[in-house]
Write a structure and sequence with these properties.
The protein is α/β, with parallel strands linked by helices and 480 residues long. The protein folds into 2 domains: 348 residues, Alkaline Phosphatase, subunit A (3-Layer(aba) Sandwich), CATH 3.40.720; 104 residues, Arylsulfatase, C-terminal domain (2-Layer Sandwich). The strands form 6 sheets. The chain has a 10-stranded mixed beta sheet, with helices on both faces. A 4-stranded antiparallel beta sheet has the order 14-15-16-19, covered by helices on one side. The longest helix is centred in the first third of the chain and has 24 residues. The radius of gyration is 22 Å and the shape is globular. The chain starts with a helix and ends with a strand. The relative contact order is 0.17.
Amino acid sequence: MKTGLFILSFCCFFAAGRAQTTKTQRPNVIIINMDDMGYGDTEPYGMTGIPTPNFNKAAKEGMRFTHFNAAQAICSPSRAALLTGCYPNRIGLRGALSPDSKIALDTAEETIASLLKKAGYKTAMLGKWHLGSKAPNLPLHYGFDSFYGLPYSNDMWPVDYEGKPQAAVAGKKSYPELPLLDGDKPADYVRTPDDQAMLTGTFTRKAVRFIENNKSAPFFLYLAHPMPHVPLAASAAFRGKSELGLFGDVIMELDWSVGEIMKSLDRNKIASNTILIIMSDNGPWLRFGNHAGSSGGFRGGKMTIWDGGTRVPCIIRWPGKVEAGSVNSNLITNMDILPTLLQLSHAAPPEKKIDGISFADLLLGRSDKAPRQVFYYYYNENSLKAVRYKNWKLVLPHTSVSYTSDIHGKDGFPGAATRAEVKMALYDLAHDPGEAYDVQQQYPELVQKMLVFVEEARADMGDDLTGRKGKNLRQPAIVN
């Protein structure tokens, strides 16, 4: 009898030990998401005049993706896609949500944070949220244990383009004071450019503190920097340090932030068990001229379906697991991050349909084949404007923001925003990354093949441009 009890106790202890071992072996996850950082804004992606030693180090020690796309080229939809693994129009997200927006991300949607939390992770968010401006549509209600940051973009505040208080700026809505939230409640307010200049440093120091306080257990940290979205601001330690003015100073401070995160991981001896993802939510807001970034030579920018709007930098570092210094040219989207992280952390998948496809095998070198071949470019509320198949991109007729018709702004002031009619065209991104030469007449059979993909998308998610209602759409939260 005693022998049986001993065996039973040993088995229970062994099982508990295995469970604990499995838990501690789950990789930590850090996502650093920049706001409006263009494809070409750092040295690993072609920038000149701005030293970025820490972006360089991350690329040298990790994998640099060259065909990584945001699901949409604007803040709220892109962030919804990242956190839920869904096309944002599938879950009802559109545009840049304002402080008085009547919609938000539905709390019923599962996120990276909520799914990893179920798997035993400690979760935290720092920086810009932009998926709802008040509780219950703030991070604590989507799986994050803590949140400190802005509810929306840093330009949604009652300050003019010169940095002076103003109730209503020409071309802008009248906004309330910009709150800095701790959880669901304001801890402070961002009232001046000097307050803006403190944001990158504040969020970075809090990120390092979170890492140090949670180094013994699996954690997920989502650090969503408000910069380099306008209005630009850099702390005194970085002002005047670059050759490209204030924009360069801001990039240098973001580079410092990346370095502080990597130093913390190395110092606490958890770098080899931490997946670090560095990315951007969409391309540069080009109408701000020298206060906007670089699309890396791709056509268009933020708010367009051209590659300058959706193709963004992405570096993934995981020492010992991801090949150091590797470059990957496969088609990947920010929707693919969620299923990839769930596979790598052995966490349960979401219950509802998602659009992301895991690229874990590609990341770990177990496969060199692209898991994704098709990507749909939606914009506005639910307008299907283009589809990509491998290296081919079929642009559908639509109206778009144009950055080539007007003079861009300068020193924090925007240029005019005009629109242009876009005709149907087929581009070969392998030979024409700038999307300049329409080759649909040379490849009519490819156009027909891609129009089948278009029809599948319209049946699934709908298309406002053709009046189609999708069969598999979910509703956003309605804000009273």
